[in-house]
Amino acid sequence: MTATHLGMPAFPAAAREAVRDDVLRANLRRATHTIRDKRARAVSELADWDRLRAAGKAVKDHTLRHLDHYLLRLEAAVTAAGGTVHWAADAAEANRIVTALVLATGEREVVKVKSMATQEIGLNEALEAAGIAAYETDLAELIVQMGHDRPSHILVPAIHLNRAEIREVFRTEMGRWGRPAPDGLGDDPRELAEAARLHLREKFLHAKVAVSGANFMVAETGTMVVFESEGNGRMCLTLPETLISVVGIEKVVPTFRDLEIFLQTLPRSSTAERMNPYTTMWTGLGPSKGADGDGPAAFHLVLLDNGRTDTLADEVGRQALRCIRCSACLNVCPVYERAGGHAYGSVYPGPIGAILSPQLRGTDEEIDASLPYASTLCGACYEVCPVAIDIPEVLLHLRERVAQGGPATREGIRVRIRPARGHTAERAALRAARLLLERPGALRAGERLLSRARRLRPRRLPGPGRAWTDSRELPRPPREPFRDWWARERGGRA
C-alpha cells in the first residue's frame, strides 16, 4: 500500500489537534448528522432491510470463500468480451501497469472517475512522476485536488470544507488546472457546481484516456459497475477511447442477479437515495466509434491485491473485505465526527479504515498500530453496516494483535507482528490479568480485598492510568463481591 501516511502522527496526536479546530468540527457535525438522518429515513422505507442486509453479507462471504474461482471466471469473461486483464500484487506493480498503458497511447492526460483503489495506491502521484496529468472529475475530489488537500471521507471527500472555503479554492486554483472560475463567483452551491461543470466539460471532450475503479465486478458476465451521482462517471466511461479500471479483488460478485441486493442497499446507505442517479455498467469494449457509438475502443482491468489476500487469511479480520464503501459507519461514528478523516492517516478513514488499513498495511508503523484504538466500541457502525461487518469485533481482534506483539496464529499461519511503541505497559497489564484470571482463588481474594478497601479509592490512577482518570471518575468498588452476593442469594458458589 502506498505510504501516504508517512510523516503523519499516530491517531491520538492527530485527533487531539483536529478536535481543537472549531470550524472543522462544525462542518463535520452538520454534514454527518444530515446524512445519517436521511439514511435512517431511506432505510426505514424497506420492510425487508434486515433480510437484504443478511443477503448482502451472505453473498460477500460466499464470494470471499471462493475468491480464486470467481476471479478466474471474471478474467475469462472480461477477456471474451475484448478486454485485457492485468494482475497487480501490490501498489507499485499496479502503478507500473497503469503508467505503461497510458504511455503506450501517446497521451499525457487522463480523466478519472472517483476511485478509492487508485487513491490507495497513490496512482496520481505515480502518473505525475511519469509526466502524466491526472484530472479528478468527481466534484468533491476536484475540490480536494485543486486545494492540494487530502480526502477526509469515503463518499464526500471534501466534507471538512464549507462553501466559503470551496469558493476560495475555485477562485484561486481552478485557472491553474484549466478553465478558470467565473468572475464574481459566489458560494451558492449552484454557482459552485456550474463553475465545476464548465471546467470539467473541456476535460471530458478532449480526454482520450480515462481511469476508473468499480463498485462491483460480475464474474458471470465480466461486467464492471460504477455507482455515482453527478454524471461525471458516465462521461469518463463512454467518451475516452481507452479505459483503465483499477479494482480491488474483493469487489467481485458471482452473478448479475446478485447486484439486485446492492442496488437497493448501497444507495440508501451512502447517499440516502432510493436508487443511484447514475449506475453505469460496461462489459468489455464499446461499439465501434461512429455517429452513434460510445464506449472505449480499448479496455484494461487491473485486479489489485495489495494486502487483500493477507487479510483474507485472517478468519476474524477478513470480514472487512465485505465493505462496499458506503461510508454509513463514518456518519454515525462519534470519533470520526469529532476528529475528521485526516486524523486516520489513510485513504480509508473512520471505523472501516480503523480495521481495513492496519490489515492492508500491517501494524509496523505507529500510525497503523494506533488505528484499532480509534473507537469507543459503541457499536453504531455495526448497526448501520449494510453487509453486517462487526467492526467492534475486528477492532478488539486487532487490538489484541497489536498488544501481543510477537508471533500470532492465523489459520495455522504464523505471522510476526511487531509490537507498537507505547503498548509495552498495556501488554504487561494484559499478561497480569491473564495470570490472575487463571487462578480463581487469587481472583476471589482480590475481589474481597477490593470491596473492603473501597473507602481508600484514589481519585486518580498513578502512572499510565493517569490519562484515563483525567476525564473519567474511577468507579467505586461494590460493597461486596459478586461471588459473595451469589452465594448468599442463590446458595451456591460463583
UniProtKB/TrEMBL annotation:
Residues 461-494 are annotated as: Disordered. Pfam families: Fer4_8, LUD_dom, LutB_C. InterPro entries: 4Fe4S_Fe-S-bd (IPR017896), FTHF_cligase-like_sf (IPR024185), Helical_ferredxn (IPR009051), LUD_dom (IPR003741), LutB/LldF (IPR004452), LutB_C (IPR024569), NagB/RpiA_transferase-like (IPR037171). Residues 320-389 form the 4Fe-4S ferredoxin-type domain. Residues 73-304 form the LUD domain. Keywords: 4Fe-4S, Electron transport, Iron, Iron-sulfur, Metal-binding, Repeat, Transport. It comes from the Bacteria. Residues 398-489 form the Lactate utilization protein B C-terminal domain. Residues 469-494 have a biased composition (Basic and acidic residues). This is Iron-sulfur cluster-binding protein. It comes from Streptomyces cirratus.
